Recover the amino acids of this structure.
């Protein structure tokens, strides 16, 4: 049976995990959004060999953060060496961009210090992200996954060569086939971006056909990401 990995999903029920497995989903990368879901992700990862986790503060959930959120994040990451950091990033359609930036940079520093893969959320803020990456050139994580990538093809090649980016595509990206076609084949990942990882099977088939590659290659690409983590 063909195998798939969901490169970006969120907390899901055991029923959904089992259903995804039955369809060939051999891995799921479950992303956190705020301190209150980190514990659930840690438990999910501990209880399921095929669930991988990323924890962090999403730019939509920066209000009401406890003062010591970063200490708590660092402590949880150190206690769980396989956890990645995500989903984190910047979103210009949401308020308080300055606070978003400082929270994002703090998490980037942690990703560098603890050598963790970063799962990135970026909406209309690639100019800011590029600037921050450049300023922190020598203090960056080993690898980034840009989820639902929305930047230009030109930027894509710079992100790959300078910062080791992979690009994960979900339902919405299927409406932008050129972006998928312009992505180097060895950097393409697929995602459900929700709590139904079984959805990634259909998405993988359609992304593979748009890019003219096999779903096996997409699976291999995602194992590369997990080995770097
Ligand atoms: Zn997400």
């Amino acid at each position: 049976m063909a195998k798939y990995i969901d490169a970006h999903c969120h907390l899901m029920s055991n029923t959904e995990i089992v259903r995804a497995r039955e369809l060939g989903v051999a891995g799921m990368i479950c992303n956190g959004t705020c301190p209150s879901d980190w514990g659930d992700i840690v438990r999910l990862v501990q209880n399921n060999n095929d669930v991988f986790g990323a924890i962090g503060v999403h730019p939509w959930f920066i209000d009401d953060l406890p003062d010591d959120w970063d200490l708590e994040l660092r402590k949880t990451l150190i206690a769980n060496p396989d956890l990645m950091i995500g989903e984190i990033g910047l979103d210009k359609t949401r308020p308080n961009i300055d606070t978003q930036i400082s929270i994002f940079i703090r998490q980037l520093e942690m990703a560098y210090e603890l050598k963790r893969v970063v799962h990135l959320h970026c909406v209309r803020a690639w100019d800011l992200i590029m600037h921050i990456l450049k300023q922190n050139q020598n203090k960056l994580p080993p690898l980034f996954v840009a989820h639902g990538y929305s930047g230009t093809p030109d930027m894509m090649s710079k992100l790959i060569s300078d910062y080791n980016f992979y690009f994960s595509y979900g339902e919405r990206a299927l409406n932008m086939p050129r972006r998928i076609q312009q992505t180097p084949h060895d950097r393409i990942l697929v995602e459900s971006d929700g709590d139904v990882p079984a959805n990634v099977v259909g998405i993988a088939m359609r992304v593979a056909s748009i890019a003219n590659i096999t779903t096996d290659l997409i699976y291999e690409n995602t194992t590369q990401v997990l080995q770097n983590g």
About this structure: The CA atoms of residues 6 and 191 lie 5 Å apart.
